[in-house]
Structure formats: structure tokens, C-alpha cells
Design a protein that fits this description.
Number of strands: 13
Strand order of the largest sheet: 1-5-4-3-2
InterPro entries: CdaR-like_regulators, PucR_C-HTH_dom, PucR_C-HTH_sf, PucR_dom
Pfam family, one: HTH_30
Largest sheet: 5 strands, mixed
Structural class: alpha+beta
Distance between the termini: 79 Å
Shape: elongated
Protein name: Polyketide synthase regulator
Radius of gyration: 36 Å
Number of helices: 18
């Protein structure tokens, strides 16, 4: 791109002299503009070289200072002033300001034709634009051919880095970021933030309307040019297509491995088969914890683009330190998850992923996470407990995603399978239920809340929105029906479990 320094070598600038802002001579010029007004905000787009006779600045030093400040704030490349008719010299205060701002201030010491300057420079700019398009087309062909030969997105960015001779930082939103040449990621982020806006540029990588990452190019030695920005844009398009291709290939491979995954979930694979499969992917996986997560896709709210959803969720899990295999079964997505982070924070990290995905997809999803196991051949146990957790959450979606936070509810399920215990529970609670039906009362609800409040009458009344006298009356009725010793430890524990058994029906066919 044409710079102020290059313009000084053209024929109409033979009598020109740089009086201030020498360090800004590398400013790029996109257009030439003649201005004879002081309010220029609506007229300037940035990177213009301004020509003026100075008629608006005559005998107005403060106005001159404000004019230079305004042009600099609007990213003007430089200011050329014709000396003679209106201005004989540039005030020292203006020169000092321009030097402080690195803003080129150029004077013509004799009359020059502004029309000739604009025609000459516009022609040069147009020729440069044509040359930029030619270089961009050449680059596009080369990188497209190069991508066919490589299988790593890093190489695509390395190709751009060598072509432009700039530094590159790829900030991946849900994965591992990288810097080219290889540098510490934290140092790159700090360094880029310290650079001026003209010395860096960035473009986002978006997949399926979601931010995958951001590619930065930057250089302390020079400003970014229009060609840099165009090549960055073309490279990001190529990079996006490459990443999409990789993600779809990964999904296709998982689809082909579906039978293997299903056998793994059912515990039918041999230890040797599992070990060989895992080591082929990554040796580190075999030393980490495992769990199974199930997503039930409600038919009425089916996710239209399931591939999109799976890819986004996989990326979100990867960002939080999980490696994932996905099995698609009818209206279920089953995730075999390896915990790369190996930390006690897996629930916290998993919750962040789930909250993010629910917010993004705006889907009414039913999610369950099975038992966290320490070995890959124990995955069947995690799968079974995930299924059990899903059954519990089908009717009580307010409960936790995680199996080990629902131990009491799993115990109740086991008790519900015992017909004798279920019958005993029904008989005990049925007496209170009959009274409620006959007298339009709320004894069962009152007893349930009373237990939840640990027998504290004030808190119970407040939670039920009744006065304490009403609570006392209800508790007297409960004593009359099931006995006055219902708050004794053994009786209370038994009643609480009975209430859970009759209140939470987890299996079809269990009638309350």
C-alpha cells in the first residue's frame, strides 16, 4: 500500500518538506482529500492524505492545533499545507504537537496543483489495488493447493506467517490456543494488547454460527496493510473449511465405530480390544477417569442440525478438559467421556458445559451423568447408572444431573421394586391420603414439609404459608391417624422414605 514516505518521492512533491512527524512516514494512504473546513468528522474515513491551502487556519493557532488533533484521532495518514497565500510559517506549537503524535506534517514551499496531485496519487492507488488483487488471487491458489497436501491446521497458519512475515496467534475458544512462531500463549496475549491498533489485525473463525476462535496477525516493526487483511481473511476462510472437514471426518469415524462403542457400554469388549483402541487414539487416556453422559432428545423439540450440536458440544467438553466419543441412538446421544484433567472439579466443569449448551441451543434437553469410574473396563457401570439417573430425572428435572448426588433416590427405586415394602408404605400413607381426600386437607404435604424443616414449627408454618395454630391443628390430626410417636428417629426415618416412595414414582407400572 502507498505510504507517506513513498509519496514524497513523486513529482509533485519535489518542493515538499516534512516539518514534523518524521516517525509517522510509514502511514498507509488509501485516498487523497482536499479540505478547507475545520469540522471534518463526517468527511474522513481514515488513512487519507489531506491537502489544504490553510485558509481555515490563518491567524488561528488554537484552531490549527485542534485541526491536527482531530485528523490524528480520525487516523488520517498526514497533512500537506501550501505555504504562501494564507500561511507563511507553521507555528512551533503545531510542530511540537505533530511530533508528539507521530503525525506527518508536510509543507509545499511553492504553489502546486492539487488536482495534479490527486490524479497522480489516485492513479497510483488504483494500480496498487489491482496489484493487491493479483497477489491475493495468487495467494489463494497457492494456499488451496497447499491445504490438499497437509493434515494439520497449524501448517495453514505457518504458511500465512511465512508469506506475510508477521507473528500469528490463534486464540481457540474451546480448545488449545497456539502461537506462530512458537511462544508462550500468555505472553502473546499481553503483547498483542500493548500494540497499537495499526500494528495488529484479527478475524473470528465461526462454525455453525458459533465462535470457534480468533486469528490475530501482528508486528511491532510495521503497520498492517490492506493486503495483510485480505490474506488474513482468505486464510481464515480456508482454515474454517479445513476445521469443518476434520470435524465431519471425526463424526463419520465415530459413526463407523458405533458397534464397538455399544459393545463397550454393555461390557462386551475384551480388555485387550479396549486397550488397543484407546492406545491408538492417545496413550494418556487409559490413565484417566471415565463416565457416561446421556442426552435425551425430546421429539417435540428435536434438534434440527444434530451434527452441529454434537460438534459444538464436543468442543465445549474439550475446552473443559474432557475427551469424548459419541454414540447416536434413536432419540438419545450417549457420550463416553474421558476426564483429561483428572480433577475433583469434574462436576463443576461439566455443569459449565451443560449450562452453556442449553443456553446456546435453547433446547429442552434431559441430561444424566453416570458414576465416575477409574478404569475404561468399568464403563458399563457408569452407563447403567446414567440410565437409572435419566429415569429419575424424567419426572423430576429439577434434580441433579449426577448419579452420585441422587443416591437416596436410587435407594428409593430399589425399595419400590419390593412389592411388600411398597405395600407397607402405601398402607401407612394411605390413611393420611384418605383423610386429605375426605376433608380437603393437606396432612401429607404438611408432614413432608415438617420433615424437611427438621421438625421446626415456625419454619414449617412459614414455608406452608399458614399460621402456627393451623400447623398445630394439622400435626394433632397426624398424631391421631398414625400415632403420636411419628417423630421418633426410627419412625420418622421410615415415614420419610415412605413419603419418597409414594411421592416419586420412577418406573412405569408403579402406581401410587
Amino acid at each position: 500500500m502507498l505510504t507517506v514516505k513513498e509519496v514524497l518521492n513523486r513529482k509533485y512533491f519535489e518542493s515538499a518538506k516534512v516539518v514534523a512527524g518524521q516517525t509517522g512516514l510509514n502511514h498507509a494512504i488509501k485516498w487523497i482529500h482536499i479540505l478547507e473546513v475545520t469540522d471534518v468528522k463526517q468527511l474522513i474515513k481514515g488513512n487519507e492524505l489531506i491537502l489544504t491551502t490553510g485558509v481555515i487556519l490563518k491567524d488561528n493557532e488554537q484552531g490549527f492545533l485542534n485541526f491536527v488533533k482531530q485528523l490524528n484521532e480520525l487516523d488520517v495518514a498526514g497533512l500537506c499545507i501550501e505555504l504562501g497565500m494564507y500561511i507563511q510559517t507553521i507555528p512551533e506549537s503545531v510542530i511540537k504537537l505533530a511530533d508528539q503524535l507521530d503525525f506527518p506534517l508536510i509543507v509545499f514551499q511553492e504553489i502546486v496543483p492539487f488536482v495534479g496531485i490527486t490524479q497522480d496519487l489516485h492513479t497510483a492507488i488504483i494500480h496498487q489495488q489491482y496489484d493487491i488483487l493479483r497477489q491475493l488471487e495468487d495467494y489463494s491458489q497457492k494456499i488451496n493447493n497447499y491445504v490438499l497436501k497437509v493434515n494439520d491446521k497449524v501448517k495453514i497458519l505457518q504458511y500465512m506467517q511465512k508469506y506475510l512475515n508477521v507473528d500469528i496467534y490463534f486464540d481457540v475458544n474451546k480448545g488449545t490456543s497456539l502461537a506462530i512462531p512458537n511462544k508462550k500463549i500468555e505472553n502473546c496475549e499481553k503483547y498483542i494488547n500493548l500494540l497499537g491498533s495499526k500494528h495488529k489485525a484479527k478475524i473470528e473463525v465461526n462454525l455453525f454460527d458459533q465462535l470457534y476462535g480468533t486469528v490475530y496477525i501482528y508486528s511491532e516493526k510495521r503497520e498492517m496493510t490492506e493486503l495483510d487483511l485480505l490474506i488474513l481473511d482468505r486464510t481464515v476462510v480456508t482454515l474454517s473449511q479445513f476445521i469443518l472437514r476434520d470435524l465431519y471426518i471425526e463424526e463419520k469415524l465415530e459413526s463407523e465405530n458405533r458397534k464397538f462403542f455399544e459393545k463397550w457400554l454393555e461390557g462386551e469388549n475384551s480388555d485387550d480390544e479396549l486397550l488397543y483402541f484407546i492406545e491408538e487414539i492417545d496413550q494418556k487416556l487409559k490413565h484417566n477417569g471415565w463416565m457416561v453422559m446421556i442426552h435425551q432428545l425430546r421429539r417435540k423439540n428435536a434438534i434440527k442440525d444434530l451434527t452441529n450440536y454434537k460438534i459444538n458440544l464436543r468442543q465445549a467438553l474439550q475446552k473443559e478438559g474432557f475427551y469424548t466419543f459419541i454414540v447416536e441412538q434413536s432419540q438419545y446421544l450417549i457420550f463416553i467421556i474421558n476426564d483429561l484433567a483428572q480433577g475433583a472439579t469434574y462436576k463443576e466443569r461439566m455443569n459449565r458445559v451443560m449450562n452453556e449448551m442449553i443456553h446456546q441451543s435453547k433446547q429442552d434437553m434431559l441430561i444424566a451423568v453416570g458414576k465416575y469410574v477409574t478404569h475404561y473396563n468399568e464403563l458399563k457401570e457408569s452407563y447403567q447408572t446414567a440410565q437409572e439417573t435419566l429415569q429419575i430425572r424424567m419426572k423430576h428435572t429439577e434434580l441433579s444431573y449426577f448419579y452420585d448426588e441422587l443416591v437416596l433416590y436410587h435407594m428409593v427405586k430399589v425399595l419400590q421394586n419390593n412389592s411388600s415394602l411398597m405395600q407397607a408404605a402405601m398402607e401407612k400413607i394411605e390413611k393420611l391420603s384418605q383423610y386429605d381426600s375426605k376433608h380437603n386437607a393437606n396432612l401429607i404435604q404438611t408432614l413432608d414439609v415438617y420433615f424437611q424443616c427438621n421438625g421446626l414449627k415456625k419454619e414449617t408454618a412459614e414455608k406452608l404459608f399458614i399460621v402456627r395454630q393451623t400447623l398445630y391443628h394439622r400435626l394433632e390430626k397426624v398424631e391421631q391417624i398414625i400415632g403420636s410417636d411419628f417423630m421418633k428417629y426410627e419412625n420418622r426415618l421410615c415415614l420419610e422414605i415412605m413419603l419418597l416412595m409414594t411421592k416419586h414414582n420412577y418406573y412405569e407400572g408403579v402406581k401410587v
